[in-house]
Design brief:
Elements lengths: L10 E5 L28 H13 L4 E5 L9 H9 L6 E6 L8 H7 L3 E5 L5 H8 L4 H14 L4 E9 L6 H10 L2 E7 L5 H4 L4 E2 L2 H5 L6 E2 L8 E4 L7 E4 L12 E4 L4 E3 L8 E2 L1 H6 L2 H13 L18 H4 L2
Parallel strand pairs: 1-2, 1-11, 2-3, 3-4, 4-5, 5-6, 6-10
Antiparallel strand pairs: 5-7, 8-9, 9-10, 11-12, 12-13
Helix pairs in contact: 1-10, 2-3
Length: about 325
């Protein structure tokens, strides 16, 4: 369906857990977070009901996120249920990849289309630093397992940060030349730890492009990434620029948090609580609530004009 600004809202990101096996510095504090607990997060049944209602409104693409979605027990079962829901045309996942090697084949069989894997450095010591102890070999194993299982195209999400990984840009780009991998450079957004205490500095996608001569522009597909490719490369390179090139006019998504809050926009504190409605088990009321939430979606975020940064941690919103 269309929102009040004429945008076709066709994409929902669903966080299935606030838990994560990593502690990325721009995502959560060093001491971690107090987990919501199983009684505070949406059940698989509730998620399926929300997806059914959303699909009836015309939302056809669903992305499973966390926290770390693969930390949620039985996730392949949820994927199978959602993939069988009428109106679901694309079902994808964003993961840190460290738990993917042992689950990739089962996820593909359950109906998952593809994965995005978050990895902000290709150097062992820097990856361990930013994740507070993560093992880069586990990520590489997850990437290879995803390719082998056919969860393709496999996309690597890289949050670009000045003074941390700006010297690795060419290393990431080289992956697209030698391997069937896509890279997505994403600007650091002022959310939670990234806004207040991560210590990492913003780097615009335009600055990254200056390091990459000979890029061939591609036609943008369904999404907000500006796409490019190097000659004879196997994968493409995308730039997601929520800060420097505010793309709110092309935004087609809403978000569902693990604790049952619907967010029409990532960059505002506006949330619609679905829990009471889910308890009523009234499908039409749930569907109408989703409709009204879409109609409440703002025209654009205000972060570039003095708007207050979002305090909720990204792992609690859904990456």
């Amino acid at each position: 369906m269309k929102d009040r600004f004429g945008r076709e809202i066709s994409y929902m990101r669903i966080s299935v857990t606030d838990r994560c096996n990593l502690r990325c510095k721009y995502c959560m504090p060093e001491e971690g977070i107090e987990n919501l607990g199983h009684d505070k997060i949406l059940t698989f049944e509730d998620i399926q009901r929300i997806v059914k209602a959303a699909a009836e409104l015309g939302i056809s693409k669903f992305r499973i996120t966390g926290g770390e979605p693969l930390a949620r027990k039985g996730i392949a079962s949820l994927i199978e249920q959602l993939a069988a829901t009428e109106g679901v045309k694309e079902l994808v996942m964003t993961t840190n990849g460290t738990l993917l090697a042992g689950q990739a084949e089962a996820l593909k069989k359950a109906g998952l289309s593809r994965v995005n894997i978050s990895v902000d450095s290709l150097l062992y010591h820097k990856y361990e630093e930013i994740t507070r102890g993560g093992d880069l070999d586990e990520v590489f194993e997850g990437v290879n397992a995803a390719l082998a299982a056919g969860l393709t195209p496999v996309k690597l999400n890289v949050v670009a940060m000045e003074g941390f990984n700006d010297d690795e840009i060419l290393n990431f780009v080289q992956l697209t030349i030698n391997h069937p991998l896509d890279i997505r450079f994403i600007e650091l957004m002022p959310i939670g730890q990234a806004a207040f205490s991560s210590g990492y500095r913003y780097l615009s996608c335009d600055e990254i492009k200056t390091k990459l001569p000979s890029l061939i522009p591609l036609k943008r597909q369904d999404g907000v990434a500006d796409l490019y490719r190097y000659p004879e490369a196997q994968g493409n390179i995308g730039f997601i620029s929520p800060m420097s090139r505010q793309f709110c006019g092309d935004c087609n998504k809403i978000r569902l948090t693990a604790d049952g809050k619907l967010k029409p926009c990532l960059h505002t504190d506006q949330e619609i609580d679905l829990n009471e409605i889910l308890q009523l088990k009234d499908h039409e009321l749930l569907k109408e609530t989703l409709r009204q939430a879409i109609l409440q979606k703002g025209e654009q975020h205000e972060l570039n004009s003095g708007g207050k940064p979002i305090e909720r941690e990204m792992n609690r919103i859904g990456g």
